[in-house]
Structures are given as C-alpha cells and as structure tokens.
Amino acid sequence: MAEEINESSGVTITTLDLKKDSKKKNRIWEIDFFRGIAIILMVLDHLMWNIAYFTYHYFDVATVYASGIGFVQNIQNENGIYLPSYLFSYMQTGYLYYTWDFRIALRMVILIIFFAVCGISFKLSKNNLKRGLILLGFGLLITLVTAIGCSLDLLSISSSLICFGVLSCYGTIIIITHFLKKLVLKLAKGDVKKWYFTSIMLVLLILFGYIFIEISGYNYQVNFNDPLSFFIGIIGNIIGFSSFGGDYFPLLPYFAYFLVGELIGETIYKNRESLFKKNYKTLKPVTFIGRNTLWVYVVHIPLITLIHAILYWSAGYNLALF
Hints:
Blueprint: E1 3-5, E2 12-14, H1 15-26, H2 29-58, H3 61-66, H4 85-98, H5 101-124, H6 128-151, H7 157-160, H8 166-187, H9 192-216, H10 227-239, H11 251-267, H12 284-291, H13 293-314
Antiparallel strand pairs: 1-2
Helix pairs in contact: 2-4, 2-5, 2-12, 2-13, 5-11, 6-8, 8-11, 9-11
C-alpha cells in the first residue's frame, strides 16, 4: 500500500484512504435519496400487489362484489375457510389500495422519478456498460426463474412470467444509451450539443409512440401455444405493444424518462457536485437504500412472497394452491 506525507502536518495518509475520501466526497447524496424514496415506494406497491394476488387467488372476488357484500365482512374462501380477523383486515387494506384509482397516478410518479434519477446516474457513472450488463443479467435471471416456474405449472404465464421486467428494461436502456451516445459524439466530433438535440428528439419520438399506442388501445394478443406468436409477443413486450406477464416494463415510455434524467445530469450535474451542501443525518437510512437499490429489488419480491405464504399457511391455507 503506497503512502504519502502531508508536508504541513507530517501525517501519513495512504492512497487507499485518499481514494475512499474522494469517492465519498464525490457521492451526490440527493440522487441516492430520491432513488431510495422511489425504491421504497416501489417495494410498498409490490407489497400491495402481493396482497391483492393472494386475495384473487383464495377468493372469488367477482362473486363477492356481485352479491353486494364487498369486503365489509369476512367471508369463506373456496375451501370454506375463514381468515383470522387480523389477516382479513391486512388483506382488505392491501386490496383496497391496489384497486384504488390514485394508485395508478402514484405508480407513474414513482416510475418517472426512478428512471429520471437512473438517467442522472448514467452521467455520473464511469462504467455504464458494465453496470448495464449486470442489471440485464439479473433481469434475465429473473425471467429464467419465472419461466421455469411457468413450465412446471407453478406459475401462470399470463400473469407471472416476467418477460421484460424493470431490471431488464433499465439494463437495456443503459446499454443502448452508452453506444448511442458514443456514436452521436463521434459523428458530431465531440459536440455535446448534438447529443442534447438527439436526446430531445428521442424523448419526443418515444412519448409520441407511447401516446399513439395508448390512444389506439392496440395490444397484441399472444398465443402462448404458437412459437411465432409467442416470439412476436416477446418483441412487443420489450417495445410496448404487447403486455403480458408480471413486472411489465417496456422501453416505451421509460426510455424517455431516462433520457430526460440523463439531460439533467449533463446540465445541472455537469460538475458532478451536489446541489445541496448539507447531508442531513436523518436521511441516511434512505440514502443507504438508494445506494443499494439492486439488492433491495432482487431480495424484496421473494421475501414478501415468503412472508405472505407463511401468514396464509399459519392460518390453515393449503399453499399447494399457490
């Protein structure tokens, strides 16, 4: 380990210490904070989805609503079992949230913040290609696990297969942006303004395509028994004109939000310095989560599912039905 002497104080400082101090100093805490907020809200949203999934799984919700009962009282599931009151209240809260109209707007705000912050991080990162490949690798691993589950009839293809989830989307966007930016700057001979222009045009084009698909209501219906139809469905799932499976994150419109964040990084954070000089200690738990979003995302879904499985199993439910 190399050492350096501070001439004014005579204190010996290792180069490792210097690297740690430099890395810590260059960390922009508000980026970690907003990323942490986004991932916390995303985890809570997935928690509510998991509750809603169990609700639909164990109860005939359509029959309940048709009878006019709603979720105002505890009812039997298809096996004639009543939920314990504590579990029923918990399930009711999650189900009502997930079917709440405000949830749709809140989810979109969360995702816009998340992908915009990811775009800012792209500007600040020194090895985007490696980061993009790692994220895509984790995303493909999740796809493989859910595909195996579907092939063994443990999961439903239409609702549980994660064809192109948030990690795959995020990783793909990083890889595309990495090579696209290099190409544009090479053609423009290093003129960053050309990259700004290209990004703005891409944002408008992506949003136009997304709005067009939404207005037209076009959604390619996949025939899972037809290999060609399934392949077209996968392509549509990636682009955004065929939605099936869980954790659905197509390139449209999230690529646009990412590019907006990247432009913010290129302009507002061009000097790689925090806009807020004071790092509040009370916010450190959130910034810690923001620095470790990948692991939080990978761990939280199986953990939430396991906890709910234990809850229902302890209440006497047959988990084989899951």
